[in-house]
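Margin note: ligand = guanosine-5'-monophosphate.
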Amino acid sequence: MSEACLFCNIAAGNIPSQKVYSDEHIVAFRDISPAAPQHILLIPRKHILSVAQLEDEDQALMGHLMLHARKVAEQEGFAESGFRCVLNTGDDGGQTVGHLHLHLLAGRGLSWPPG
Ligand code: 5GP
Ligand code: ZN
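Resulting structure:
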């Protein structure tokens, strides 16, 4: 854990969050400022800055994270109506928190392309 990192502290339970799923590898919790009726963040417990820093050793972890996007979508009841998975990466990608996170957005029709 990176002690200064907001999402490491959320994963560790040092900062409160509305968790919807957690296991030994990942945590899913509700976004504090939802951009859709359903907005959940999935993060690895391992501190990885972004997709741009992924290593070969992270392959299984990222597969686990992606698979649980589907499982959380089913658990929360929006797997059938549809959802969007987003991994903002770096400055131009709009990333504001430096711990890799997958946005799971649902509950309304989402426009494309993003701004
Ligand atoms: P990014 O802009 O890096 O792709 O996404 C960061 C997300 O984290 C934003 O949607 C923002 O609302 C969310 N966020 C920032 N701080 C907190 C927090 O303290 N708790 C929770 N639950 N979400 C946060
Ligand atoms: Zn972190």
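The first strand starts at residue 19 and ends at 22.
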